[in-house]
Design a protein that fits this description.
β1, α3 and β2 form a beta-alpha-beta unit. The chain is built from 13 helices and 15 strands. The protein folds into two domains: 156 residues, NAD(P)-binding Rossmann-like Domain (Rossmann fold); 214 residues, Rossmann fold (3-Layer(aba) Sandwich). The strands form two sheets. It has an eight-stranded mixed sheet with strand order 10-9-8-11-12-13-14-15, with helices on both faces. A seven-stranded mixed sheet has the order 3-2-1-4-5-6-7, with helices on both faces. The protein is α/β, with parallel strands linked by helices. α3 runs parallel beside α7 and α10 runs antiparallel to α12. The structure holds zinc ion (ZN). Zinc ion (ZN) binds next to α11.
Length: 403
């Protein structure tokens, strides 16, 4: 079968990327929880050709996400070495994403015997861990948190891709164990601006946490979005905010949408938070101003191909976005005043699902931290993991938002 190049257009823009190699891989995945759900989403979105999942779940319509790849789901758990051997037959990679020590032990031993690459991943609502070619640890709290599952799955999928083929700047990570507390519930009113790659995951996470959300975006879904905006499989040509809120109805009834463009009159009054999931500084500039003016906290998400960060601005408690970024958004906004035109030959950036899902998860972690009085931004860099950084509590004296 020929590979649909438009679907993978944005990842094929990465120097040295080998889509064909991914298409020829077979990955065996074990798990029935959200961690294995998000891993399967990643594997099929990246375009890995053959995927076997031992474990059951109907969180997502996996077959529709990428109809070009093969998925086999076996509704059972791994309870013996023989079963583990059977499940990983002809695989290139084995991932155990359960929180079950027994399953991990059998899969690890079976993978070792066949000399296969083995990842163990596990998470709870207060931490996540993964390891490569080691018998992995399991969290005591057996519930896999939605947010930590999103983050952990992204990190493991990234490390798997690096072992399939290495890119020039790749740095492999063999192991990560980190405490990250996600909100158990977030019954807040949130205005989310942007329903693209970060926006898909942040709205999903917010919906799973019972938040009341309004999603706004004026853009429409294109085929080249599908490698990372995984809920849009039936939505090409439709408005992103509308399509996303429709897909999320399954998880929450508290979602609205709109097509407003962000400008000088942006007014988030009445919301508890603004989630900025946009890809341009002009919109960030107006959101930063409006947050200061109306005293509504702003959580900004930004990603590049292999990195990104989640950055909160709490008016009166932290420096604003301008001051945290160390440059004046007004200046960069001016340069971007002409909106990007969707013409042939327009310049697009390489983009993957991985950093976007990680940053979306980290935006909710920022909120949880702020609720407990810690104002931190969180950076993600492929091969390094997560870096937490305390934010200055005040703007620079030159900042106009000081009044
Ligand atoms: Zn400032």
């Amino acid at each position: 079968m020929a590979i649909n190049l438009e679907r993978y257009n944005r990842q094929n823009l990465i120097e040295g990327w080998q889509q064909e190699k991914l298409y020829n891989l077979k990955v065996s995945l074990a798990g029935s929880g959200l961690l294995s759900d998000f891993l399967l989403v990643d594997l099929i979105s990246l375009g890995i050709g053959r995927n076997t999942r031992t474990g059951s779940s109907c969180s997502f319509e996996f077959e529709k996400i990428n109809p070009e790849v093969y998925i086999e789901q076996r509704d059972e758990e791994i309870t013996s070495f023989q079963m583990a051997e059977l499940c990983i037959e002809d695989s290139d990679f084995v991932i155990d994403a359960t929180n079950d020590t027994r399953s991990k032990h059998f899969l690890f031993e079976a993978a070792k015997k066949k000399n296969l690459n083995y990842f163990s991943a596990s998470c709870s609502k207060s931490g996540l861990s993964f390891s490569f070619n080691r018998n992995g640890e399991v969290f005591d709290d057996s519930t896999q948190g939605a947010v930590n599952s999103m983050i952990c799955a992204g990190i493991v999928a990234d490390e798997l891709r690096k072992r399939a083929f290495c890119l020039k700047r790749d740095r492999q990570l063999d192991r990560l164990e980190i405490g990250v507390k996600e909100p158990s519930n977030l019954e807040k009113k949130i205005l989310q601006v942007g329903a693209g790659a970060i926006g898909t995951f942040s709205a999903l996470a917010l919906a799973l946490k019972s938040a009341q959300i309004k999603i706004i975006d004026f853009d429409v879904v294109e085929e080249s979005n599908l490698n990372r905006q995984f809920l849009f499989y039936d939505s090409i040509g439709k408005n992103k905010a509308e399509a996303l809120s429709k897909m999320l109805e399954k998880y929450s009834r508290k979602i609205q949408n709109g097509t407003e463009k962000i400008g000088e009159n942006f007014d988030p009054s009445g919301y508890d938070f603004v989630f900025s999931c946009v890809d341009n500084n002009q919109a960030r500039y107006f959101m930063n101003l409006a947050s200061a003016k109306h005293s509504v906290p702003l959580i900004n998400g930004g990603s590049s191909t292999f990195a990104g960060n989640a950055m909160p601005y709490f008016p009166g408690k932290t420096a604003c976005l301008d001051c945290q970024l160390g440059y004046d958004l007004t200046e960069t906004a001016k340069e971007e005043e002409q909106p990007k035109k969707r013409e042939i030959g327009a310049c697009f950036h390489p983009a993957l699902i991985i950093p976007n899902q990680i940053i979306a998860g980290l935006m909710l972690i920022c909120v949880e931290k702020a609720i407990s009085g810690k104002y931190e931004k969180i950076n993600y860099l492929s091969g390094e993991g997560l870096l937490f950084q305390e934010i200055e509590d005040q703007c620079f004296s030159e900042c106009r938002k000081n009044g």
